[in-house]
Amino acid sequence: MTISVIALQSSEEHECSDEASQEDEGFMGMSPLLQAHHAMERMEEFVYKVWEGRWRVIPHDVLPDWLKDNDFLLHGHRPPMPSFRACFKSIFRIHTETGNIWTHLLGCVFFLCLGIFYMFRPNISFVAPLQEKVVFGLFFLGAILCLSFSWLFHTVYCHSEGVSRIFSKLDYSGIALLIMGSFVPWLYYSFYCNPQPCFIYLIVICVLGIAAIIVSQWDMFATPQYRGVRAGVFLGLGLSGIIPTLHYVISEGFLKAATIGQIGWLMLMASLYITGAALYAARIPERFFPGKCDIWFHSHQLFHIFVVAGAFVHFHGVSNLQEFRFMIGGGCSEEDAL
Ligand SMILES: [Zn+2]
């Protein structure tokens, strides 16, 4: 109820302040039943205003605890809005989540178009069209699910505590799915002539990914105190790729890994993800300029941009691997260790 009063006051601002103080005086003398009735009326009025899109952004210090995520973003927050219609309409308003929503909404549309284009590529461009399209399909599925869970979460985050909790779990699960999906085409082409380690690494990343999804279902995982743990879990999941990379470099040699193996693109992809996760965990740059990055360029937005860039760089690397496989054909000679 406190929240509704705060949001109403913020939406009405000055013109209401006198009236509100008079009402507060009257409020004190009311019977508990009348007070409850009055509060219900205010709540209904508030829900109606939100439904109509008549709300204004509020400062961080009046947010309810479940919406207090980053205390370096001082102003520009959406009030709690228990209406999906209002949450979706807020996509087109300017507030702390606008950049977070659009970076992954546009990223999602981009990967959806890229995925459709890739799936409709003529079969003569592949050695084993069905198998390769399934392998790439899993990467696109991971990327599209991650980005769509993310923009949906940021859109409905202010709906209510329950809704924000459900969607934050989907958001974190999406990151694990993106990482798992990214491993599939990379392992498939890197270990093309040696399916046994490929299969083992696929099982390991699936087990680790599922473990990360299970951990992210824990309610405390979404809290601000666990920001570093969250970054660590997903960074660890992504960096587990170091083991198959070392396997490849040791068996094929650095030169082959750097040219045919696309290690350069993989390194770039890893550094984009690591930079994004580090900014996210340390809340840079808003930590140095509290209140200056409320709407644009705060750490979460930058992290989103680094995720989209990292996923695209990964796609570029694995499509180079695919092209190389197509050039040399599907056969595996005696010398092909991998
Ligand atoms: Zn996000």
From TrEMBL:
<feature type="transmembrane region" description="Helical">
    <location>
        <begin position="302"/>
        <end position="319"/>
    </location>
</feature>
<feature type="transmembrane region" description="Helical">
    <location>
        <begin position="101"/>
        <end position="120"/>
    </location>
</feature>
<feature type="transmembrane region" description="Helical">
    <location>
        <begin position="262"/>
        <end position="282"/>
    </location>
</feature>
<keyword id="KW-0472">Membrane</keyword>
<dbReference type="GO" id="GO:0038023">
    <property type="term" value="F:signaling receptor activity"/>
</dbReference>
<keyword id="KW-1133">Transmembrane helix</keyword>
<dbReference type="Pfam" id="PF03006">
    <property type="entry name" value="HlyIII"/>
</dbReference>
<feature type="transmembrane region" description="Helical">
    <location>
        <begin position="170"/>
        <end position="188"/>
    </location>
</feature>
<dbReference type="GO" id="GO:0046872">
    <property type="term" value="F:metal ion binding"/>
</dbReference>
<dbReference type="InterPro" id="IPR004254">
    <property type="entry name" value="AdipoR/HlyIII-related"/>
</dbReference>
<keyword id="KW-0862">Zinc</keyword>
<keyword id="KW-0812">Transmembrane</keyword>
<feature type="binding site">
    <location>
        <position position="300"/>
    </location>
    <ligand>
        <name>Zn(2+)</name>
    </ligand>
</feature>
<dbReference type="GO" id="GO:0005886">
    <property type="term" value="C:plasma membrane"/>
</dbReference>
<feature type="transmembrane region" description="Helical">
    <location>
        <begin position="231"/>
        <end position="250"/>
    </location>
</feature>
<protein>
    <recommendedName>
        <fullName>Adiponectin receptor 2</fullName>
    </recommendedName>
</protein>
<comment type="similarity">
    <text>Belongs to the ADIPOR family.</text>
</comment>
<keyword id="KW-0479">Metal-binding</keyword>
<dbReference type="GO" id="GO:0033211">
    <property type="term" value="P:adiponectin-activated signaling pathway"/>
</dbReference>
<feature type="binding site">
    <location>
        <position position="304"/>
    </location>
    <ligand>
        <name>Zn(2+)</name>
    </ligand>
</feature>
<feature type="binding site">
    <location>
        <position position="154"/>
    </location>
    <ligand>
        <name>Zn(2+)</name>
    </ligand>
</feature>
<feature type="transmembrane region" description="Helical">
    <location>
        <begin position="135"/>
        <end position="158"/>
    </location>
</feature>
<feature type="transmembrane region" description="Helical">
    <location>
        <begin position="200"/>
        <end position="219"/>
    </location>
</feature>
